[in-house]
Amino acid sequence: MPQSRKEEIIFTCMMAFGMVLCMSCYNSVWFVGFSGNWVALALHNLSREYWLALPVAYFIGTPISHRLTLRFWPWKQKYFPIGMGIFTPLVMVPLMTTLIHLLLFQISDPAVIIPAYGRNYLAAIPFQLLLVGPLVRFFFRKLVAERRQEVSADTTAQESSLE
Fold it and tell me: Which of 48, 62, 83, 49 is nearest to 12 (CA)?
């Protein structure tokens, strides 16, 4: 998990990209099916929705999810990432679904938005818990572990040269 502001930004960018990619593919297949040109539609939606998801995830979704996890998740020490993986879609799905429908598609009809919430919850939670969350955490750990080893090696070399 991120330990500094810089790591938090990198982690948010990686997680937002993974989730927006999966949800764009899911919604594209939902609307045009596998027979249509769902890949082009998903990539088009990804290019617009990713830039909307970054600030929403970083400034709104992550802090709210973190507070909810600390307050309601009973296994804080050992399974905190799983708690965040559960609470993040619970916060982000309504935020992103509403923002995308209102800002990008100019749809404000509750008859369209409310079924979209349910449909997107059904996909977002398994994507977050089983696919995107574990993959992003794995790659983030690899990326951060290498950088931390480089920094600690540089620090050790500098300390030994001072002695």
Answer: 62
Domain assignment of residue 122, yes or no: yes
Check: CB of residue 1 under 8 Å from CB of residue 81: yes
- What CA–CA distance (Å, rounded) separates 21 from 42? 7
pTM listed for this prediction? 0.85
| Residue 128 included in any domain | yes
Pair of tokens at residue 66: 């973190």
pLDDT digits (tens, 9 = 90+) for 27-71: 999 999 998 899 999 999 999 999 999 999 999 999 999 999 999
Name the domain count of the chain: 1
Phi, psi dihedrals of residue 79, rounded to the nearest 5° = -115, 30
Which single residue is written with the structure tokens 């709104």?
60
DSSP 63: H
Residue 163: inside a domain: no
Q: Which two tokens stand for residue 144?
A: 């951060």
Q: How far apart are CA 77 and CA 65, in angstroms?
A: 16
